[in-house]
Amino acid sequence: MVDVSAKPETVREATARGRITMRPETLALIAEGRAGKGDVLGVARLAGIMAAKRTAELIPLCHPLPLSAVTLDLELAAPDAVEIAATVRTAGRTGVEMEAMTAVSVAALTIYDMVKAADRGMRIEAVRLVRKSGGKSGLFEAP
């Protein structure tokens, strides 16, 4: 693990985005609440938030961080996708980029798990950091 003890504590925030693409019929199943395992988007939101909080247990060498906020938004994107965005905030010595990307990834995997019986060909795509602020490197915004 990298020693960050000499770094100053600053407010750090990161936003990541991704999507899960599926057949239009599968998106309709989610939108209409007809998935056999329950509220797909509600469970995916909770799973993503929980994953952000446990990133240090999932990704080797990540620092455990006291997160002050995690928001996870899921939006149905007709005709065939769910768009996922996670924003994570902390006041600490290292950034929360990994927590944001983990939240998006786990939310997408949860959606896959909950409706895979209807559509095993779903694709998790474009998980990426879109914005980061705070810390020594300052502001990053993806083009």
TrEMBL record:
User: What keyword terms does UniProt attach to this protein?
Assistant: Lyase, Molybdenum cofactor biosynthesis
- Give the protein's function: Catalyzes the conversion of (8S)-3',8-cyclo-7,8-dihydroguanosine 5'-triphosphate to cyclic pyranopterin monophosphate (cPMP).
Q: Which reaction does it catalyse?
A: (8S)-3',8-cyclo-7,8-dihydroguanosine 5'-triphosphate = cyclic pyranopterin phosphate + diphosphate
Catalytic center residues: 113
Q: Does the record carry Thylakoid as a key word?
A: no
Q: Which HAMAP family does the protein's record reference?
A: MoaC_B
Q: Which residues bind substrate?
A: 61-63, 98-99
Q: Which SUPFAM superfamilies match?
A: Molybdenum cofactor biosynthesis protein C, MoaC
What pathway does this protein act in?
Cofactor biosynthesis; molybdopterin biosynthesis
Protein name, entry field: Cyclic pyranopterin monophosphate synthase
Subunit organization: Homohexamer; trimer of dimers.
* E.C. number(s) listed in UniProt: 4.6.1.17
Q: Which residues form the Molybdopterin cofactor biosynthesis C (MoaC) domain?
A: 1-135
MF terms in GO: cyclic pyranopterin monophosphate synthase activity; GTP 3',8'-cyclase activity
The organism of origin for this protein: Muricoccus nepalensis
Q: Which NCBIfam families match?
A: moaC, PRK09364.1
Family assignment?
Belongs to the MoaC family.
